[in-house]
């Protein structure tokens, strides 16, 4: 089939489109011989695809177990030519301008691949302009051409945007004592919603109410991907964000440490929302290092990183339970019995300050 096609996009200055923006350009095609087309269709499409292979089960029973999921974010068609008759399109060059509007609540473009001892994960979110030339006849295959576009998406605030206190309490099991042995971590953050490239500001305090000396306190920013397959199987993959870690000194028994923390966010990171396949979330981890055999106490302060899609959107979610209410309840329980084991009684909470 003698069809030659070209898709010319009018790109934004930074090369990326945003939800609600217009994708426009000119489609040009040339026919070098008279050809019958049933339909010529120009489309804007956006799709997500997740493929997850379980390496653990493959090693166990020598079979590859693959889980999938997919979803559609946008599918808009514009029919340039339609004919039910065998009327050929004359030889010549043709040109059509086009305009498509992206939906508001869509995830950003994504190309993700990772492999470890447990899983192989591929997850792609793609948006593209496509043109399709349909010809009549059973064995006349359609000719297709597409051009991918990059979409960057913002966030809808669901976390507190005012100063908020988060807390974590770790109860240690220790022999030969009825006195509660507790490590408390409290953090006060200015806002949990922040734009890329800005600075996260928080203060934290660690109370060492044990007869042990804590080895130190480590802080870092952690990125967590959560993948969801068609059967609602959820797999999390986490990694530390480069150059965001720090460490303070030891805290002796019965003492506390109060520190300020500033984390400069990289400009190329951001939360991923509006997808049922994948999410990307961020947490500030504040970890009190407890001597072996006890498990460390970690407070995870959630962040939403990104530009707000609509600055007039309000956070309508209820705030987390009061930190001090949880602390008071735990102290009340401590008076009724002995300390609890490490793994069973981690409590987390937050309150607005």
From TrEMBL:
Q: Transmembrane region positions?
A: none
Give the record's keywords alphabetically: Sensory transduction
Protein family: Belongs to the arrestin family.
The superkingdom of the source organism is: Eukaryota
Question: In what ranges is there compositional bias, type Polar residues?
Answer: 247-257
Tell whether Ligase is among the UniProt keywords: no
Residue ranges of the region described as Disordered: 238-257, 315-353
For bias kind Acidic residues, which ranges apply? Answer: 336-353
Annotated Arrestin C-terminal-like domain ranges read: 179-312
Parts forming coiled coils:
none
Tell me the protein's name. Answer: Arrestin C-terminal-like domain-containing protein
Alphabetical list of Pfam families matching this protein: Arrestin_C, Arrestin_N
């Amino acid at each position: 089939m003698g069809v030659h096609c070209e898709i010319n996009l009018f790109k934004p200055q930074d090369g990326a489109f945003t939800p609600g923006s217009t994708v426009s350009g000119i489609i040009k095609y040339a026919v070098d011989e008279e050809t019958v087309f049933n339909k010529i269709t120009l489309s804007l499409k956006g799709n997500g695809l997740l493929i997850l292979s379980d390496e653990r089960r493959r090693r166990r029973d020598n079979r590859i177990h693959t889980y999938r999921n997919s979803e559609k974010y946008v599918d808009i068609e514009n029919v340039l030519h339609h004919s039910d008759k065998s009327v050929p399109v004359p030889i010549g060059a043709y040109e059509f301008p086009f305009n498509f509007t992206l939906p508001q609540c869509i995830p950003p473009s994504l190309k993700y691949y990772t492999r470890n001892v447990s899983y192989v994960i591929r997850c792609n979110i793609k948006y593209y302009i496509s043109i399709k030339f349909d010809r009549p006849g059973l064995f006349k295959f359609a000719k297709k051409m597409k051009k991918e576009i990059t979409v960057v998406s913002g966030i809808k605030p669901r976390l507190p945007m005012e100063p908020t206190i988060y807390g974590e309490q770790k109860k240690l099991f220790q022999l030969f004592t009825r006195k509660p042995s507790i490590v408390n971590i409290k953090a006060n953050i200015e806002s949990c919603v922040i734009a890329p490239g800005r600075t996260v500001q928080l203060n934290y305090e660690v109370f060492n109410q044990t007869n042990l000396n804590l080895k130190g306190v480590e802080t870092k920013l952690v990125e967590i991907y959560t993948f969801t397959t068609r059967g609602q199987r959820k797999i999390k993959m986490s990694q530390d964000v480069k150059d965001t870690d720090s460490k303070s000194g030891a805290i002796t028994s019965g003492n506390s440490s109060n520190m300020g923390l500033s984390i400069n966010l990289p400009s190329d990171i951001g939360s991923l929302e509006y997808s049922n396949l994948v999410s990307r979330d961020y947490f500030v981890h504040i970890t009190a290092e407890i001597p072996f055999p006890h498990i460390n106490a970690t407070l995870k302060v959630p962040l939403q990183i990104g530009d707000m899609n609509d600055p007039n959107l309000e956070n309508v979610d209820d705030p987390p339970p009061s930190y001090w209410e949880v602390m008071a309840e735990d102290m009340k329980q401590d008076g009724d019995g002995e300390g609890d084991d490490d793994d069973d009684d981690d409590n987390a909470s937050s309150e607005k300050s």
